[in-house]
Design goal:
The protein is of the alpha/beta class. The chain has a domain at about 1-180 and about 230-260: Rossmann fold (3-Layer(aba) Sandwich), CATH 3.40.50.720. It has helices at about 10-20, 40-50, 60-70, 85-90, 95-115, 145-165, 200-205, 235-245, 265-275, 300-305, 315-330; strands at about 1-5, 25-30, 55, 75-80, 120-125, 170-175, 180, 215, 230, 230-235, 255-260, 265, 285. The protein has a seven-stranded parallel sheet with strand order 3-2-1-4-5-6-11, sandwiched between helices. Helix 3 (about 60-70) packs parallel to helix 5 and helix 9 (about 265-275) packs across helix 11 (about 315-330). Bound molecules: UDP-4-deoxy-4-formamido-beta-L-arabinopyranose. UDP-4-deoxy-4-formamido-beta-L-arabinopyranose (WQD) binds near residues 197 and 217.
Length: about 325
């Protein structure tokens, strides 16, 4: 299939493109490079041996997107482009609402205009708010604690309403749990802007000596060891979920949790990292981070049943690959060194 991938040089987009190229899809990437590197395009080629097109286009720029869609005959669009830093979204809500909503509206408009059959949207478990795990796709969407999460819920709504008005459109809303890890080659992984917000990028920077110690946000949650529980999923498994969705030929509105179905606490993750990589991670317990919930993990049975997809890689694979990526990261590749 001919696929337009927005945000294709970012952390999840780049891994998805590798899997799509391996499955012989024809890929056009757009990315504004706000949180990604142009060199990633070449690395995708190095891994797969296959070409893809890249254009530096911002997904909020309707005219440029329109021009691109007019020239290509896309069968599907996978929409990864979006801002994703929870803390920043609280301080700069309009930046998040403007960018994430407008880019999604543009994609929806162009899918209609150019008869692009399928939209796959990067959603997030954050749409479930402070609800009860395991989350199923039928769990209520409770109030989000930050504008980033709110944009994900709003974009879902926008796309669902669009699909209802244009029933020929196949829509996939993929709700990611906590993607971590990196490509085995060490060429693709997550390079956070500034101080990492997320747990694993912070741990790998502590392991590298870039940060002194990890702060664990609270050990007084109602969980076995008191630290927060999340459903960490290897980014390569997550990437494969997109290929399964695309190739399923399903019509209508399709919503899937992409996780492993297993919960892991912060302390368990730190222990696994230390054991697998044989590196000590110094940490201190600090107070809870506002907006965090105690427990989040997925019921993943729907994706398995309907897409034949399930996560295969283990927590050990995730922490090993995350460290392999960070340790091979050259100084010039990390603006924040
Ligand atoms: C995981 C656990 C923290 C950092 C967020 C978004 C979500 C998705 C992924 C974005 C929690 C604890 C963390 C640290 C810690 N989207 N922690 N010390 O909050 O589950 O999900 O990122 O890209 O929508 O909400 O992920 O990795 O930040 O936190 O103790 O320095 O680690 O409290 O229990 P989260 P996370």
């Amino acid at each position: 299939m001919k696929i337009l991938v927005t945000g294709g040089l970012g952390y999840i987009g780049s891994h998805a493109i590798v899997q799509l190229l391996i499955s012989n899809h024809e890929i056009t990437i757009i990315d504004n490079l706000s949180n990604s590197q142009k060199e990633t395009h070449k690395k995708i080629k190095d891994i797969t041996g296959k070409n893809s097109d890249f254009y530096k286009i911002d997904t909020t720029n309707y005219a440029k997107l329109d021009n691109l869609c007019e020239k290509h005959n896309f069968d599907a669009v996978i929409h990864f482009a979006g801002y994703k830093a929870v803390g920043e979204s609280i301080n700069e809500p309009l930046k998040y609402y403007f960018n994430n909503l407008l880019s999604t509206i543009n994609i929806a408009k162009l899918a209609i205009k150019y008869d692009i059959n399928t939209i796959i949207f990067s959603s997030s478990a954050t749409v479930y708010g402070n609800g009860e795990s395991p989350f199923t796709e039928k769990s209520p969407l409770l109030e989000r604690t930050n504008p980033y999460g709110e944009t994900k819920a709003m974009c879902e709504r926008i796309l669902i309403d669009t699909q209802k008005a244009y029933p020929n459109l196949s829509l996939f809303l993929l709700r990611y749990f906590n993607p971590i890890g990196a490509h085995k080659s060490g060429l693709l992984g997550e390079i956070p802007n500034g101080i990492p917000n997320n747990l694993v990028p912070y741990i790998t920077q502590v392991a590298k000596g870039k940060r002194e110690k990890l702060q664990i946000y609270g050990n007084d949650y109602n969980t076995p060891d008191g630290t927060g529980i999340r459903d960490y999923i290897h980014v390569v498994d997550l990437a494969k979920g997109h290929v399964s969705a695309l190739e399923s030929n399903r019509t209508g509105i399709n919503i899937y949790n992409l996780g492993t179905g297993k919960g892991t606490s912060v302390l368990e993750l730190v222990n696994a990292f230390e054991k697998v990589n044989n590196i000590k991670i110094p940490f201190e317990i600090v107070s809870r981070r506002p907006g965090d919930i105690a427990v989040s993990y997925a019921d993943v049975s729907k994706a398995k049943r309907e897409l034949g997809w399930e996560a295969k890689l283990t927590l050990e694979d995730m922490v090993e690959d995350a460290w392999n990526f960070e340790k091979n990261l050259k100084k010039e590749e990390n603006k924040n060194d």
